[in-house]
TrEMBL record:
<feature type="binding site">
    <location>
        <position position="205"/>
    </location>
    <ligand>
        <name>Fe cation</name>
    </ligand>
</feature>
<dbReference type="GO" id="GO:0046872">
    <property type="term" value="F:metal ion binding"/>
</dbReference>
<dbReference type="InterPro" id="IPR041735">
    <property type="entry name" value="4OHPhenylPyrv_dOase_C"/>
</dbReference>
<keyword id="KW-0963">Cytoplasm</keyword>
<feature type="domain" description="VOC">
    <location>
        <begin position="41"/>
        <end position="171"/>
    </location>
</feature>
<comment type="similarity">
    <text>Belongs to the 4HPPD family.</text>
</comment>
<dbReference type="InterPro" id="IPR029068">
    <property type="entry name" value="Glyas_Bleomycin-R_OHBP_Dase"/>
</dbReference>
<dbReference type="InterPro" id="IPR037523">
    <property type="entry name" value="VOC_core"/>
</dbReference>
<keyword id="KW-0677">Repeat</keyword>
<dbReference type="InterPro" id="IPR004360">
    <property type="entry name" value="Glyas_Fos-R_dOase_dom"/>
</dbReference>
<keyword id="KW-0223">Dioxygenase</keyword>
<keyword id="KW-0560">Oxidoreductase</keyword>
<keyword id="KW-0333">Golgi apparatus</keyword>
<feature type="binding site">
    <location>
        <position position="288"/>
    </location>
    <ligand>
        <name>Fe cation</name>
    </ligand>
</feature>
<protein>
    <submittedName>
        <fullName>4-hydroxyphenylpyruvate dioxygenase</fullName>
        <ecNumber>1.13.11.27</ecNumber>
    </submittedName>
</protein>
<dbReference type="InterPro" id="IPR041736">
    <property type="entry name" value="4OHPhenylPyrv_dOase_N"/>
</dbReference>
<keyword id="KW-0408">Iron</keyword>
Amino acid sequence: MTLEQTLTDEERLAELDLDTLKQLVGLVEHDDAADPFPVTGWDAVVWAVGNATQTAHFFASAFGMELVAYAGPETGLRDHASFVLTSGAVRFVVNGGVAPDSPVIAHHARHGDGITDIALEVPDVDRCLEHARAQGATVIEEAHDVTDEHGTVRIGAIATYGETRHTLVDRSRYDGPYLPGYVARTSTLQRRPGAPKRLFQALDHVVGNVELGRMDEWVDFYRRVMGFTNMAEFIGDDIATDYSALMSKVVANGNHRVKFPLNEPAVARKKSQIDEYLEFYGGPGAQHLALATNDILLTVDRMRAEGVEFLPTPDSYYEDAELRARIGEVRVPIEELQARGILVDRDEDGYLLQIFTRPTGDRPTVFFELIERHGSLGFGKGNFKALFEAIEREQDRRGNF
Ligand SMILES: [Fe+2]
């Protein structure tokens, strides 16, 4: 299969092409035939939240996403309401409980607003589930067809860390707005004058936080069960401040569209940010989503104007002579980055610009990263210390440090 043929429908709809995707998310060539668990790309990030109606509004207004589909009591879904929003190739599904005994409400009570499902698009659900089962994975949902007037979707699901799952979706025979049972729905929200069509184009990576001593187990899970390969690892001084520490390893699918950094806390003088997450999420779960943009300055300006809060970066970061020498020339003057608190990192392949939001829910758990890649396939290793110090200042304000 050529790379051109591997563009997903969502990417084609978002007018993304291969060169753009290579730049945005580091897409590489991959032979599915030799892969025991071929993954085409992301299908959806599914959320359980306390108020889906308002969270959907937040993603539409503050993140510039577009409401495209809905299911709920009006469509025959009795226990919860479900809003589907997209931005480029990114799809969020936001679920909130309606019936008091809805499992969505129970999930929300345990974890707060969080990610229940990192759904992946695969060409062959049955083959993936067979392989996963043979490798000892927990199959939560056997492969089955779901059909409506728009066609048929084949679907199945396996368990991953905590109460998170990977639903596997083959939507090659389906042309509805999301899944059978959902109806097309738009929002009356009006874009601000001059607003770009979208603020981000693709999902770059989703980070999982797991308990102390469990990271290697989950790295092994993704390698053994899903055929992912190691991309990077960060241990020891890479990823410690004077006070707290964590360890991180990154696994990716064959074409590198799907990248999962996995963090575990490390023992240090003070409480790791990963421990704070585990305590307030009530166990392992997805920590942050990195959204790929081709204009991070514009994205940050627009989101900030809509009230999204980003972690502040001290001026000393930009005045550091060593940093300035290391990052060299980037596409904008460093003052433009400083004015917005955007971080820069460079490696042998190129550079990247990145910035992190504060947690977007009430609990100090899930947050977002914006990332603009220029050749670098890394994760901002050079910024870890500055980032973690910024997170520690926030942890301290919350009394959790
Ligand atoms: Fe990240």
